[in-house]
## 1
Amino acid sequence: MSKGHFINRKDELKNLTHGLKRGKDYILIAPRRFGKTALAKKTLEEIKQDPNYLIIHIDLMFYSGGSIKSIAEGIINKCLNALGISGKIRQLWRQVDFSINLKLNYKDLELEPVIQLFKDGSGEDEWRLLEEALELPEKIAKKRNKKVVVFYDEFGEIDYFSERAVKVFRSVLQHHEEVNYLFAGSQETLMNKIFLDKSGAFYRFGELIYLKELTKSDVFSYIAETYPSINPEVIYEMLDLLNGHPYYTSLVLEHFISNPEISQDVNSFYQYIRTVLIPQEEAYLELQILKIKERVNALDVMRILSLKLSPYKELQLKEQQVYSTLRVLEVGGYIRKESRGIYTITDPLLEFFLRD
């Protein structure tokens, strides 16, 4: 969401900030662009103001398709940054003065074995390196006599590496006493598998928060009170089209402020959607469509859903084919199951793009 429009997330912000500082762990689940990362970052900014806390932010999407060693390397880099060591371990370990600095200032962190594993790591060594990397936040907390909050963004990506990777994360993190964790993910099915299913490695690890659309009444009240010059009819149209989607709602509101004429009548609003907002977001929308096309029948199913029709009735496919396609789209976070046989597209602009 835009920095200037943190609509209806104040309760979540307060609960996350206070909860993490009280020693709780959280799992934040929401579709793409629902503001989960913005909420998490704002929470971390609030906590960071307390000098007794250190913050470590690791986006696992950045390592998607990589190796276990690449994840470990990323975690180590973020931990070194938290210690005030600038640069990346891949370059730093070659420097003699860096090694001396480690021994003098961070001896009780036992970073030398980590450096050696990174230099030599392959095969089973990369799993040992991951374990050592995951232990670093707890070691840093004890070394610096501070609390540490670690934010793992798009944590569902870890499931794509292997079941072993998820179990290694759990086996290490569950023993930490000075570190609290905030996990976020956009693939609801995967996050539920990891955190909610009784067989999941992180079952009952923390409190789950499902970030939903902004309520239409809250958004309307916020806009009407803050920007009374905006035509209420246009606000209603925006709410019907975007369904309280945090990212798009905030983006459109920014456009309203900078271009007041588009907020004065419904026709101007829809012209703006087609000639400004869609072109601005087209690269992202086309990327989503390309990913959807990778699944057989998926784009046809999405088009039918965008028209508020049933793919079971409208497509000449076997029931099992439709079910399997819906399941794949749900796992990918493109649709959400509302009830038996009823699904909605999670991105309202993508829905409009497919339908228009």
## 2
Amino acid sequence: MKFAIVGTGGTGGTIGAYLALKGNDVTFIARGKHLEAIRERGLTIRTSHRGDILIHPAKACTMEEYGDTPDVMFICVKYYGLEDAISLARRTAGPDTLILPILNVFGTGEVMQEKLPHLTCLDGCMYIFAKIAEPGIIEQPEKILRVIYGFRPGQDTRLAPKAKALEEVLRAADIRGHFSDNIRRDALQKFAFVSPMGAAGLYFDAVSDTFQHEGPEREMFLGLIKEVAALGNAMGLTFEKDLAETGLKLIDAFKPGLRTSMQRDVLAKGPSEFDGLVNRIVKLGKQYHVPVPLYEKISAWGKANHVS
């Protein structure tokens, strides 16, 4: 399969490198010094479980330079960069292209589909902890690497055979790929971890090991998960696992000192996914008449502190 990785950060860079390592045709779409380094020295993934992965030479270009039509387009930009990704898909994706956003924000595929009505935009999510350490180098300190994707209810499933074949391609590349028959449930289940961790971590300026001990940080983390779970129930979703229990198992297994990408973006005084990870839940709570007082508290705090 031919892949376009739109956004070669911790998420896109890692999944693209694993795919390229197994001989897949992968184009990394990046910018700035990161792109320059990839062109000059290739892309390196520094892992804690299998050593360094080096893709050199690596096919890399800007969004403006990309002109191919891929089989699969992984959208790995931050939520605030989604419009640029939509423009790229509109220009380069074909009728047989699977467009697969794996952003942190719940429901991104549906947002894309509304603006790309003649293309196929799935929904997806990814379990990973990785970040750009320096231009051309991505650190993956945790082994977890799982991609879940699928069609939404009522969506045209003409490309289902290709979506199923993608599952095997991912698994052959040591990525736990899963073609889901209930992606809204699975995506919200993932969101029920990444959103509470990012929101509580930002609010308390806390790192991963802070949540591994009893205290107000862990209590808020759990409370936020329960609010997302209540929202999911109001949306008619039935979860196979207890989201609070699953969230605690995940956070308790993390290495110490880790921050989410939203925390890092805010600390760098740049744009963040606060609107998608926090304010979106407040809006959905009102839409489905579900109380979300902890999210409202953090949303108000973000507004008072000019978090964007």
## 3
Amino acid sequence: MTAQIISGTEIAKQIREEIKQEVAELKEKHNVVPGLVTVLVGEDPASQVYVGQKEKTSAALGIYSERHDLPADTSEADLLALIDKLNKDPKIHGILVQLPLPKHINETNVLFAIDPKKDVDGFHPVNVGKLMIGEPDYLPCTPHGIQQLLMRSGIETDGAEVVVVGRSNIVGKPIANILLQKQKGANATVTICHTHTRDISFHTKRADIIIAAAGKANAITADMVKEGVVIIDVGVNEIGKTAEGKRILVGDVDFEGVKEKARAITPVPGGVGPMTITMLMLNTLRAAKIKAGLI
């Protein structure tokens, strides 16, 4: 069996073209320009790269963007004051505070301070609750990207046995909730496995779809999956560097071994990764439409 490679790079490109057209129409017909602000506290190199990618993508799609870079010693009170100001700014439809934050700042306090209507990450408890009852304003970016990868690759989730490996608030729990919903691109029977699951392979061997978000390199091996399984690998793990100093990245799934049994599989990199920023842009567009009363 030759596995279908699910390219997040290609699917993200399709969705970005759709967003770009919708942004242009929104501006032309309603004089509304979606606005996204990113707030970065400190100088974490990975966070700086990620924020830079968001700025570049916003510009390419016609989305207005602002960036606030704050020193690492910024107080929690000052950060909360900035968020309050951005909550009231009519140009801004989406607020994204880049995580992780310095240890002296309480992440929960910061995330809860963002206006739920501008919470384009989908982390505010109001938005988490809306997702739970099937009435979301915004779906969290990475899980929404996973759902789009499945739908746009022709993978049927209706009635499928889905096993999610990992229970984080960012990926594991929300993707399980998304795929449980009684709607298109969902309607699955979902099992969540985690570090205290006694026998993970018992569950993964019967899965039609495995979503691996464990944060451990090559945690899912060929002997743990059945023939014809669909694999969505969320993991990004650095296992070393090349002689030239380039990072060697692998997923949570042993790609070379599992692809011989899988019907379809995402690569790492180039699978789930490109979808996350794309879904952030989609949520920012949606936020602008909600504010304008168009949704």
## 4
Amino acid sequence: MANSMKHKNIVVLAHPDWINGYETNTKKIVHEFTKQNRVLYVQAPINRFNSIFQKNNPAIKNRLSVLNKEIDPLIKLKDNLWMLYPTYKEEALNLAINNWTFNFINRINSRRFAEEILKATKELGFDDFVIFNDRNPILGLHLKELLKPEKYIYYISQCEFTDQFQSQVLTRHEPKMLRKADIVVTNSLYYKEYASSINENTYFIGQGNDINIDDTIESNSFDLRNTFNNNLPIIGCIADYSTSNLDLKLFEEILIERPKWNLVLMHSLAELPTAVQQLEKYGNFSIVPLESTKQKNAYLQQLDVCIIPEIANTFAKEKYPEKLDEYLALGKATVSTKTIANDIFSEHVYMASSSEEFIVKIEHALAEDNHRLMEERKEFASLHNWQNTVQEIYNSIEGKSNIENMVA
């Protein structure tokens, strides 16, 4: 491990509440940080509007409890990890009537935020520290000059901004943040290309996965063959969260062109769109609901080829292709829509850019699959763990990247 990041103090500027918030890449990165370093996980301050209109939100309740002095703002979560709740209400930026007003309000917020961080770092004995900013270009914009950290690292991974104001703010202000950062790290080649056009000290660090191979061991009670009355190849796809990005036209073309292939869509969704359900008019298509991880992995083991037929839109280009890691960890032959984000998988995954190419690549996958390829896929997926991801962050501080040498 790089000496520059052993026994350091790291201040992490994060979005979700550690206790009540959703799981994120940054939380997993922080767990790795704490193995060698001390970490202060800083929550964003409560917004004045949110303190009124979202006061029943558990994360907001925690912040209100701090403001009411019912709980301490600085909480030790485990060895080497503390969480800080700011003790003030943030001024609402969406009230800004122009850029000058926006910048004025943001500077006020940033100064207050910096004071809270400095108070906490002094209490913890953090004489020097590194800042790790989880894609907050607004609140983090002035922290470099206000806090004077040893290094300022800005991390970009995919995040969806449903609020139009947030999306516009990100587009307008993130380039300023990128120029200020000492180092930019990204989990996607798409974001590396974007950020490196602004800051040459940009590094692709990949992403870990949380796949437990032991979960694949299951009884024969989950027999996917029972879904079909034949011994034809089974080509499968999983929809975990949504079907909105699936290329249903591509699905249909495969079903029509290859009637002697069984095509199965496995999902854990409460409801499927009508357009997906209508594909069941084809006799070689089946929808299979999933009730557990063990069931899913048992079914995956029975697939001849896994497919990821996505619409090649901005979302697909930006996101790290976690599903590829899941399939490869099981050694499965996989065909995916080609995007810049999954270029790093090109040695182990068949890539396609059209329905015709998809069909050809599936045929190749069926014909070429063997034990050696299965083991190579498993080995490749095993490299994508959080320990290696964090090592790449450490490497970036040294101005080097092992992973980029592998995918260049």
